[in-house]
Design a protein that fits this description.
The complex is a heterodimer of chains A (about 375) and B (about 100).
Chain A (H helix, E strand, L loop, with lengths): L22 E5 L26 H14 L3 E5 L9 H10 L3 E6 L6 H10 L3 E6 L4 H8 L4 H15 L3 E7 L7 H10 L4 E6 L4 H5 L1 H4 L3 H17 L5 E5 L19 E4 L5 E2 L20 H7 L1 H4 L25 H8 L15 H12 L18 H5 L1
Parallel strand pairs in A: 1-2, 1-8, 2-3, 3-4, 4-5, 5-6, 6-7
Antiparallel strand pairs in A: 8-9
Helix pairs in contact in A: 1-2, 2-3, 3-5
Chain B lengths: L9 E3 L5 E5 L4 E6 L2 E5 L1 H8 L7 H12 L3 H17 L4 E3 L10
Antiparallel strand pairs in B: 1-5, 2-3, 3-4
Classes of the chains: A alpha/beta (about 375), B alpha+beta (about 100).
């Protein structure tokens, strides 16, 4: 195993100063009963046999808390696919972390939810794929998902967990956003996260079905603004807009390697859940090295820290410490260069091309019923071997 | 418009919101769903008073006495601070309830 560098330096060798992480995303499994065509997991999914045991997670949570992490988001895949989920949750609480469970609600019974309550889950985030059975089941690729989710939401309320609804919006459902917000209220949620599909990985394979139109993006923004005013003090709304239609890119992770880290099912530590798409980058594993060393010294976490690595037009841009040049994974995917200005930025030379492609994808004439969706599924073992 | 917080209201931290020490950074933080907020000494002092028992008026009186400050000023500080947290659903209010046994 290659030694880590002894000093934190960006990919050009400039010295950088790492801060401390606040949050850790723990993707404890990639297994999931749903098959959403915009899944944020990598296209190459980690198989069950590669998943770390609960003991490794317990050690990593302790290392994370020592490093400064305050909150852990236990996610997947579907975290409920692991039978030892309650043990994993309890070890995170024992480490002093605030535990946020991110779930599809499928496969967690009422009895298990009570067990998770005992184990110390602080907050539950439930994903919804639609506001009615037809859309929810169609997008999730899981017949019956809607009924199970509504049952789960009822148990969450009865037990008394604070609830956030995670709603991913795209061309097939954006018009129903007001109904989704109303549904979150009905379910007693304190928060709703409205996130426009990010076109990486699986979602990129489904661009023609999912890319919102410019009018939809403007509509969603208006709906969110109105609802924030109307529901102040009742429902908190966090919103990730459609960045293909924006003037400036979203701030990548609040700054690469600045506030968060992601640990995958097999212990791979990534600066962001999509970072594996930067194919030349070498990632460390939390089973091999202390998390603190990975955070402070690894090439992957230091690569894009600071602003010295930036090329033009970012280097001379007054927004470089606001959006950090945008999303590195999007730069990799569209420009073929992870250090390029995020091509969704209006200052990027590729911007016109990005907009033209987004508008062409958005003009694809499909409805939720007719759209051909490539569902997120794990390859069968036989296919892998063959 | 009716003020958001009345003197009889009892403010409290709901489930899922925790006041705690950040031992690595040496600061006090308020943890809530997808939020961790750094607190200054005043914010920490106010939130430490929320026991789910005492009303705004009682908390104001106690803090005014402890810091030897005018109650109107303390009341304004508390109201401004808590209003922001109530809007973000990090603090809840229990309305003052008349005990049925005392008022048959």
């Amino acid at each position: 195993m290659k030694d880590l560098p002894t000093q934190p330096r960006d990919l050009d060798g400039n010295p950088v100063t790492p801060g401390l992480p606040m949050a850790m995303l723990a993707e404890i499994t990639h297994r999931c009963p749903l098959a959403c065509p915009y899944c944020s997991n990598p296209v190459e999914l980690t198989r069950a046999a590669q998943e770390m045991p609960a003991e490794d997670w317990a050690r990593i949570f302790r290392e994370a808390a020592d490093l400064g992490v305050l909150q852990v988001h236990i996610s997947g895949g579907e975290p409920g696919a692991r039978r030892d989920l309650a043990q994993i949750v309890a070890s995170a609480r024992d480490a002093g972390l605030y535990v946020n469970l991110i779930t599809s609600g499928i496969g967690i019974t009422r009895a298990r939810l009570e067990e998770l309550d005992q184990a110390g889950v602080d907050h539950v985030q439930l994903s919804l794929q639609g506001i009615r059975p037809d859309m929810a089941d169609r997008i999730s690729g899981h017949p019956g998902s809607w009924d199970k989710k509504m049952g789960f939401a009822g148990w969450v309320a009865e037990i008394g967990f604070p609830l956030t609804i995670n709603a991913v919006v795209h061309r097939q459902n954006m018009e129903r956003l007001p109904d989704m917000i109303a549904l979150a209220e009905t379910l007693g949620a304190r928060r709703i996260e409205v996130a426009t599909v990010q076109f990486h990985g699986w979602a990129d394979l489904n661009r023609k079905a999912l890319m919102p139109t410019r009018e939809q993006a403007a509509f969603a923004r208006q709906v969110v603004n109105d609802a924030r005013t109307r529901l102040r003090g009742r429902l908190v709304i966090d919103y990730v807009p459609a960045d293909h239609h924006a003037v400036y890119p979203k701030a990548c992770m609040g700054g690469w390697g600045s506030t968060g880290l992601n640990v995958g099912p097999d212990g791979t530590v990534l600066p962001c859940h999509a970072a594996g798409s930067i194919t030349w980058m070498r990632f460390e594993n939390a089973r091999d090295r202390p998390l603190s060393d990975i955070w402070h010294l690894s090439e992957s976490f230091n690569a894009f820290r600071g602003t010295e690595w930036m090329p033009e037009p970012c280097r001379s841009c007054d927004r470089k410490t606001l959006d950090f040049g945008g999303c590195r994974c999007q730069a990799m995917a569209i420009a073929g260069d992870a250090r390029a200005t995020d091509p969704v930025c209006s200052k990027s030379p590729l911007h016109a091309q990005v907009v033209a492609r987004a508008e062409s994808d958005a003009a694809t004439d499909t409805t939720a019923d007719t759209a051909e969706l490539i569902y997120r599924r794990m390859k069968k073992t036989r296919e892998l071997q063959g | 418009m009716e003020p958001l917080i009345r003197p009889d209201d009892i403010p409290y931290l709901p489930r899922g919101v925790r006041l705690q020490q950040d031992r690595v950074r040496g600061i006090r933080v308020l943890q809530a769903p997808e939020r961790a907020m750094q607190l200054d000494a005043i914010g920490d002092a106010i939130l430490s008073e929320l026991d789910g028992q005492r009303s705004m008026a009682a908390i104001t009186g106690d803090l005014a006495a402890r810091y030897n400050a005018p109650p109107e000023q303390i009341a304004g500080d508390i109201r401004d601070f808590l209003t922001g947290l109530i809007e973000r659903r990090m603090v809840f209010l229990k309305p003052f309830e008349i005990d049925a046994e005392d008022h048959p």
